[in-house]
Amino acid sequence: MRQGYWLLLSIRSMVTATSPHQPQAIVTGASSGIGLYTTAALIKRGWTVVMAVRDPAKGEKAINALGLDRRSVTVLPLDLSDLRCVRAFAQAIAAGSAPLDALVCNAAVYMPTLKAPLFSPQGYELSMATNHLGHFLLIQLLLDKLARDGGSGKGSGGVQKRLVVLGTVTANSKELGGKIPIPAPADLGNLAGFADGFQAPITMANGKAFKPGKAYKDSKLCNMITVTELHRRFHGQTGVVFSSLYPGCVADSPLFRHSFKVFQKVFPWFQKTITGGYVSQPMAGERVADVVSGKAFSTSGVHWSWGNRQRRGRQQFIQELSEQGRDPTMARRLWELSTRLVSNGVATPSVESKARG
Ligand SMILES: NC(=O)c1ccc[n+]([C@@H]2O[C@H](COP(=O)([O-])OP(=O)(O)OC[C@H]3O[C@@H](n4cnc5c(N)ncnc54)[C@H](OP(=O)(O)O)[C@@H]3O)[C@@H](O)[C@H]2O)c1
Predict the structure, then answer these.
(1) Which of 139, 214, 274, 323 could form a disulfide with 184 if both were Cys (CB 3.0 to 4.6 A apart)?
(2) Using 50, 70 and 90 to split pLDDT, how confident is the model at 311?
(3) Tell me, what DSSP letter sits at residue 160?
(4) Does ligand 1 lie within 6 Å of residue 76's CB atom?
């Protein structure tokens, strides 16, 4: 009820803040880290941004801390772990008259030290529920609005409409970071855990024993596979560009706040001085904003990376995904099972009717 009231007020102010030529993006998890700096970088590029955040007060504080132009941002509440909140948010956005030119699926939780699984209000393991299922439903519910231009893929001011998802190196066994077996590499198996309803005691996509670090990696693999399937199903008919990216190792972002304290101290140092992989939060934000708005990033269905060793002026490249990440049968099955899980007794979202596959 409170969320609905807030959404209504904020959507009203959002409409007046947006000019017809100014493109608008939604960035999930924009109250800290990469999402916050993506917001700042998009505003610099002339965009307005809806900061879709779990804690609006934290979002407001972050706007003040970075001195963001208030006329260019709207803070809206979105708890991705709760599918009811995702529906309320998407309904409010879909009903509003403000444009939607890009959706950036950035929010995530990483809880590698959990001793026992946590569950979402719908009974799904929390990192998969937040990182994959919440975004999956959000995408399904907002795709119609994103694609509402007759299939040209052109948005406000002529921008190329895009849907961008944050992936990661540790969920891609094609890269060194994805081969590290601590606690285990990302592996969705044959998605038996999803097929069996993904309710306790099931906590992992493959139906096997709970490993919190792997739950995060699995969820990020689902994020990257979702992009390949979105591209296959919808790019041709909508013109929307679908892509994922690894922005580099942002070793001092709040993502690691649930890791061991010693890890939080050592990891940034290690990435800065040993691997040379460290990327700052502002740099990562610029990279995401490039993927959202740069001409060089207009290829759909790909995963962008800047590699693991950072050098001045390092250029982006298309990074191949693991076998599971690019397996079309896996992608189709993930799509179908995820649709079933997010429907959870609710009618299938309208976007399904457009699906080709
Ligand atoms: N840091 C890295 O090295 C790295 C590398 C590769 C990919 N990534 C990806 O980059 C993205 C951003 O991570 P980050 O490093 O910027 O970490 P972060 O600062 O912790 O950002 C994560 C954001 O997600 C939000 N969030 C968490 N649970 C949520 C929920 N239930 N509903 C809505 N929002 C929720 C957090 O909000 P609260 O502040 O309210 O918790 C926070 O704003 C993630 O997808 C991550 O997987 C990060």
Answers:
(1) 214
(2) confident
(3) B
(4) no
